[in-house]
Amino acid sequence: MDKNNYKNFLRDEQNLLPENLSWDKVESGIQTKLDLLEASSKKAFWRRIRSFAFLLFGLLISACLINQCYFNKNNSSKKSTEVLNQNHSTIAEKNIQENTDSPSKKTKILQLEESQKEQTSLAQTDRKNSLSSQTKTNIKKKEAKTFLPNSISTQTIKINKNYSTNRIAQSPIDKFNIKEANESVSGISKFNENQSNQDLVEKNTLNKEISNIKSASPISTLLHFIPTKNKHLGLSGAGPFIKKEAFHPKWSFGLSSGVIFWNPGFEGQMIGQHKAQSEKALVSHGTHFNLSFLLNDKWEISSGLSFANRNSRLEFSGVKDTTVAVDRVVTLVNPDTGNQVGQQSMNLDASAQIYRNLIHHNNYQQWSVPLYLSRNWRSNKRLNLKTGAGIEYAFFGNAKGVTLNLLQGETSVWPSRIKEDDFTLSNRVSVLGNIELEYQLRSKILIKTTIQGSRSISNLDTRIGETFLPSSLYLSAGLTYRL
Amino acid sequence: MLDQSIIKLCVRKDRKAFQQCYEACAPYVYSIVKQYIQNVEERKDVMQEVFAHIFNSIEKFNEKKASFKTWISRITINQTINHIKKNKKHSFLITLHPEIEHYEEEQQLAFDQINKAVFKKVLNKMPTGYRTIFLLYHVDGYAHGEISSILNINEQTSRSQLSRALKWLRKHYKEQLKAISYG
């Protein structure tokens, strides 16, 4: 069946609207529903913006967390490798000392005897105090065992000092050859195997020697062999030569642009209260140029030039009572003759109400110089999160729009600079805080997204009792170039 | 249906233009609404909802995509269906059978032979669910796929419901005719 038949049949008739559906009777209902729809669409818009802001913030936080976790993992693995290297190098050095520094067995024996004498005297003192039943050997064991870890840790510090300060300057590398290094490796295994008291005492003595050698020691040069030792020890990871990342360029400049969500912050007894009800902020836009200087790898100071173009919608409905005075002169004419008989003056006062509905878009432009300090929370090769706080000085403002004059029940247009009116946008200070996420595209070019919140601390309204303290949230994206 | 100039004024939220638009379109909108909604008070409410939506979204109207009449009828049908959905007392599925019923296109009424007055009367008595699907398919020209998405039902359900609606319509139409001839 042709569907149009039904359609024509059911809808071709000239429908007359019932009485209850005339415009007069449905107008208010439609208007109410229309207002609800507009309100809900506005709410939906702000909900979208809010969710977008939350999403952006969530992304920033998650990027930061991921980055932080990655960094920590990397860092801790580096640190553990370094510690391992240091410990093993310490052990290796001791063994090398055993193999190289002790010139002859005789000397070694002499040293051993000396140390035994020392230990014996110590043991005797102890025996006097409390340990009468303990043998000489046991005392030696105890002391050797307790002394050894301390000596290793002390040694580690010293070796590190040597490494960092005298690695090249005082390194008699030529004194050592690969054979010696291999001997040192074999010494490591020896060290692990030999746990006898005698050896411990011997090492104790050697530790003392090492600690006496200090910075002038050729031990530092042995670090050159550590990668080889690591292999033998079954250690993986980087060697001790972990270069700290080079400090990046100090100067950078950036350009960003984005949207501004703002609140005019009108308050007051007269105008402000009414403006707060009738003037609503619209989504606006801004552009920001910044020049940054890195104080160190964490702190950065920035300044630049900001332009903000803020819009608002003024919707005003007002009623004004007015009285119209009418002066009339009535001429009396004789209807029969047509002659003028006389004149009569009449004064009539007519009262009336003037309704004014106004919808207007106001526009506030502001040029300002921000100055803020930022903290770099993470800086690896790609991602960097910054948080900052500072102040902003507005040096020039311009506005166009309509202002309310409630005393006269009217509005007046001010097309020129706002400073000629009752409030001014220039010479004002705001506080600001921002979160910025940078991603390095190239070696010198970075893209960035910024969330910046600001609040004016200077009242922009010069009238007594009136307040105009705009606050804004600026979401932007842009580029940074490192010089 | 409506001058482009009035539409432009409506976009600017001009009250007079709203009135002109309403007066021009309301009869057509009402002809759609009254077929879907039987309650007179509900019709008024739906009419207001439809025009509120029209005025709110008139800036989105694109004459290149569809005529104003088509655009209005779409909004009307959507709002009417939404209104029916809101009223929980109506159910689109009058009887629920798990099996898919077989239906035939020949079950439809022979249009040329029907008594239009009787048909309208029977249509007004038709259960809301049947009537909605019948109107959507046979009057407003929606396909089963579209109906299923509008009413949030299965496409096969839409087909079976339409089949049942036609059965119901034929049965009651015949009964009504008998009643008239004997009466």
Describe the overall structure.
- By secondary structure, chain A is an alpha+beta fold.
- Chain A is 41% helix and 36% strand.
- Chain A is built from 9 helices and 11 strands.
- Chain A has an 8-stranded antiparallel barrel with strand order 1-3-4-5-6-8-9-11.
- In chain A, strand 5 and strand 6 form a beta hairpin.
- In chain A, helix 2 crosses helix 4, helix 2 crosses helix 5 and helix 3 packs across helix 4.
- The radius of gyration of chain A is 44 Å and the shape is elongated.
- In chain B, helix 2 packs across helix 3, helix 3 crosses helix 4 and helix 6 packs across helix 8.
- Chain B starts with a helix and ends with a helix.
- Chain B has 2 domains: 83 residues, Orthogonal Bundle (Rna Polymerase Sigma Factor, Chain: A); 78 residues, Arc Repressor Mutant, subunit A.
- Chain B has 183 residues and is mainly alpha-helical.
- Classes of the chains: A alpha+beta (483), B mainly alpha (183).
- Chains A and B meet through helix 1 and helix 2 of A and helix 2, helix 3, helix 5 and helix 6 of B.
